[in-house]
Amino acid sequence: MRLLCINPNTTEAMTDAVVTAIRPYLPANTEIVPVTGRIGAPYISTRASYAVGGHAALDVFARHADQSWDAVLLACFGEPALFALREVSAIPVIGMAEASMMLAAREEGPFSIVTGGPAWEAMLKEFAAITGFSNRLASVRTTTLTGGDIFARPDAAISALLDAVSACQADGAARVILGGAGLAGLAARLRPLAPLPIVDCVEALAIIAQEAVAQDHAKGLEARPSPAAAALASAGWV
Question: Which of 37, 65, 171, 175 would give a disulfide with 8, using CB separation of 3.0 to 4.6 Å?
Fold first, then answer.
């Protein structure tokens, strides 16, 4: 399995952290190629940076779409340009937030989301509505720390994240999605301390991606390029 992992955030160390966190959930022979956005914010935490991050994601895919891949992993919780990427992709495009909600919704009861950065509350509620999960979403709880802040100082963020998870319990959630590229690897630290089960967005990304690739392989569809995406680069759009 050959995966293109796109991080629309421009912090390369964050891309590396996501890849490190996801590898244990993938088969040992998986080739995962991480690429960091070359334009935009170090960490997406506003609507403006989200919009630019969508351009960054399309730019990365267009520059690599002439190669054969089994799937694209969009390593940003909230999925900038998810539907635009799918429009020009010949392969599955899997995003962190949608994958996490798909996994969380397989169990009974509502789920909540915890992430960093106040702007994400409204943005993720909108994303849940677009992807059809509003009726399962109990709440979105954010910390005043952005995901970039949490990535830079994870030890200092544990208490705030646990407080947010506890608030989700009061909201009626049966489980909590811990979301954000900047939070990669923190689910394992929170699980023993949290009052609710934690859905790790990185693990969810791996699970849903493998399922999508397996479905393609069952249809006889192997790794392949995406000419429509590559055409964006040749046309000078990205």
Answer: 37
The CATH number covering residue 124 comes to 3.40.50.12500
Residues 146 and 193 in one domain: yes
**Predicted confidence (pLDDT) per residue in 197-234, tens digit:** 999 999 999 999 999 999 999 999 999 999 999 999 88
Cα of first residue to Cα of last residue in the chain, in angstroms, is 27
What is 83-122 written as a DSSP string?
HHHHHH-SS-EEEHHHHHHHHHTTSSS-EEEEEE-TTHHH
Q: Which residues fall within 8 angstroms of residue 187, CB to CB, at 6 or more apart?
A: 178, 198, 199, 200, 201, 202, 203
Which of 102, 105, 98 is CA-nearest to residue 173? 105
Does 191 share its domain with 102?
Answer: yes
Quick one: tokens of 151? 């990535």
User: Taking a C-beta distance cutoff of 8 angstroms, is the pair 4, 33 a contact?
Assistant: yes
Range of the domain at 104: 98-201
Does pTM top 0.90 for this prediction?
yes
185/110 same-domain check: yes
Task: Label residue 86 exposed, middle or buried (CB < 10 Å: 0-12, 13-18, 19+).
Answer: middle
Cα–Cα distance measured from residue 11 to residue 15, given in angstroms and rounded to the nearest whole number: 7
Q: What is the pLDDT of residue 236?
A: 82
Q: Are residues 179 and 132 in the same domain?
A: yes
Looking at the structure of the chain, the number of domains it has is 2
What residues contact residue 40 under an 8 Å CB cut-off, 6+ apart?
Answer: 8, 9, 10, 49, 52, 53, 55, 56
Q: Give the type of residue at 103.
A: L
pLDDT at 234: 84
